[in-house]
């Protein structure tokens, strides 16, 4: 049966006309609601493009995030404070963009960033590690990484919440809780843990309450929340990023790193924050040698997995056996192979396992924390507390707001009882050096591995005690809708390789999606 051509033609004309009208309407709506529609999930690169094409200003973008924080943060509690000067900084970025030649501005110019609340800013914001004890303390200067962000023209949007004192007050229950903003929530499933301690940075990135963010890690605090909230986290080599002006746990393991929605965003942030800082001179000078000429962006290669040797340590995956997550990882292994990686899965584990049955980290950390925190508190210009002993007393006095009876402060009390770097601590330090050398390092070198592949944050201890880098990339969602990540860990200074691997995996899988219930 023949159709009537004139009618079909007519219909298609009407359709075209309708399409034209609706696209006009859509454009108008898009202009009116640019913020509500297209800024969600936008990468720093896309935002820069929109800036340049005059489709967006940094002020509009900053307002978009401020509105989202207003709307979502009462539920998610990923942010403790917003910066009263954020819009002013955005305006300045908008002015500078007009005045300066295209191409001369950093990838973060005009881009709003959230900072974990243990990273000092010398401005109207407080720096408290989530505790009321440090409210109204005055820091001597911006943290080293913050000084770099300001120079790059980034908009300091606010302070992200965290497990209080970067999770060195109480045990790993109560992850994501701090007195100043309460319990941070996993936006994918409000009854699941967001993990910590950089919980707020991860929550905020997942829920689009900022463009990019910084977290810190001593043992798992970037990699775990990144995994649990479907974002990308880079835990850099020790000293690659300055810890100057960061409320410490231990300078032997602390590191500052990006937490973002994509590998490319995280790499853009990394490029801005790495480098020497006189306030963390020894470690940042030592690690400067790892910074590649031309920065890290050049390693965002779609075929980055080609020829890479990746170690799979089976026991790390044991606890998933028989679950859909295990199946998903099997499929990821196939993807890695298909993208040209060589998977090495018959690894000798004897020495590596010892790392996980040793308690040296806890012994050393306790003594180091007391020394490092006391130094930080002493250097403050103004502070209600000047020592760990003061903080313990504060928590006892303000039991109600600090939930001291309920959550305790066991790590604080143990640390206060330590007495410097004594014989026991020295033995613990030697043990860790040996365990790292005979464990992770040996495993990597003997098998000529580019990275070790592990699920979620299972490998963090090995990375922590050696000052090694790791990158977590979204890898899936479990039966409860809770995200999990895949982690690529390597030897010191291996960021270029890890970025190639992480980007190759991300581009081949594209697993991240925003939490659905927030729409
Ligand atoms: C810092 O804390 C003080 C004391 O609570 C408060 O008045 C001030 O608003 C805080 N700063 C910001 C930016 O929220
Ligand atoms: C260091 O290792 C030795 C030998 O394994 C052990 O006896 C000692 O208890 C360890 N030290 C600490 C602080 O864990
Ligand atoms: C969230 O997780 C809980 C288990 O902790 C589960 O019972 C619930 O169904 C999950 N919610 C969603 C939306 O998946």
UniProtKB/TrEMBL annotation:
Kindly list the residue ranges recorded as spanning the membrane.
none
Top-level taxon in the UniProt lineage: Eukaryota
From the UniProt annotation, give the residues forming the signal peptide: 1-34
Q: What is this protein called?
A: Amidase domain-containing protein
Enumerate the UniProt keywords alphabetically: Signal
Q: Matching PANTHER family, A to Z? A: AMIDASE, OS04G0183300 PROTEIN
Domain Amidase span(s) in chain numbering: 61-457
The scientific name of the source species is Eucalyptus grandis
> Among its keywords, does the record have Ion transport?
no
Q: Note the Gene3D superfamilies from the entry.
A: Amidase signature (AS) domain (3.90.1300.10)
SUPFAM superfamilies from the UniProt entry: Amidase signature (AS) enzymes
């Amino acid at each position: 049966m023949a159709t009537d051509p004139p009618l079909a033609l007519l219909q298609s004309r009407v359709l075209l006309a309708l399409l034209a009208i609706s696209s006009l309407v859509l454009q108008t709506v898009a202009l009116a609601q640019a913020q509500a529609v297209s800024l969600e999930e936008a990468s720093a690169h896309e935002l820069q493009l929109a800036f340049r094409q005059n489709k967006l200003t940094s002020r509009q973008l900053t307002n978009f995030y401020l509105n989202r924080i207003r709307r979502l943060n009462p539920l998610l509690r990923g942010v403790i404070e917003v910066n009263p000067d954020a819009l002013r900084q955005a305006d300045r970025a908008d002015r500078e963009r007009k005045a300066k030649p295209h191409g001369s501005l950093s990838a973060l110019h005009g881009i709003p960033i959230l900072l974990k609340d243990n990273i000092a800013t010398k401005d109207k914001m407080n720096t408290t590690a989530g505790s009321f004890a440090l409210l109204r303390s005055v820091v001597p200067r911006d943290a080293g990484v913050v000084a770099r962000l300001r120079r790059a023209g980034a908009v300091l949007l606010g302070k992200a919440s965290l497990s209080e004192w970067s999770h060195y007050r109480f045990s790993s229950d109560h992850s994501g809780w701090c007195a100043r903003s309460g319990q941070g929530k996993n936006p994918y499933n409000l009854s699941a843990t967001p993990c910590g301690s950089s919980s707020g940075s991860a929550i905020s990135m997942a829920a689009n309450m900022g463009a990019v963010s910084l977290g810190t890690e001593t043992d798992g605090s970037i990699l775990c929340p990144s995994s649990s909230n479907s974002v990308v986290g880079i835990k850099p080599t020790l000293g690659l990023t300055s810890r100057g002006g960061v409320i410490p746990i231990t300078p032997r393991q602390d590191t500052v790193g990006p937490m973002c929605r994509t590998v490319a965003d995280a790499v853009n942030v990394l490029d801005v924050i790495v480098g020497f800082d006189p306030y963390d001179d020894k470690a940042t000078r030592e690690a400067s040698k790892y910074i590649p000429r031309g920065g890290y962006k050049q390693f965002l290669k779609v075929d980055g997995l080609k020829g890479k040797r990746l170690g799979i340590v089976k026991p790390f995956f044991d606890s998933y056996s028989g679950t859909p997550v295990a199946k998903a990882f099997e499929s990821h292994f196939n993807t890695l192979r298909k993208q040209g990686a060589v998977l090495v899965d018959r690894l000798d584990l004897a020495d590596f396992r010892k790392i996980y049955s040793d308690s040296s980290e806890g012994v050393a950390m306790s003594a180091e924390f007391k020394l490092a925190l006391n130094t930080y508190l002493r250097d403050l210009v103004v502070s209600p507390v000047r020592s760990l002993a003061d903080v313990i007393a504060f928590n006892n006095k303000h039991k109600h707001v600090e939930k001291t009876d309920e959550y305790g402060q066991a790590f604080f009390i143990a640390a206060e009882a330590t007495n410097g770097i004594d014989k026991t601590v020295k033995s613990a330090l030697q043990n860790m050096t040996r365990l790292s050398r005979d464990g992770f390092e040996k495993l990597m070198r003997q098998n000529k591995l580019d990275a070790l592949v592990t699920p979620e944050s299972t490998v963090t201890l090995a990375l922590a005690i050696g000052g090694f880098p790791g990158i977590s990339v979204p890898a899936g969602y479990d039966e409860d809708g809770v995200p999990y990540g895949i982690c690529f860990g390597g030897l010191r200074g291996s960021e270029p390789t890890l970025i190639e691997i992480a980007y190759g995996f991300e581009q081949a899988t594209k697993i991240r999606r925003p939490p659905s219930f927030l729409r």
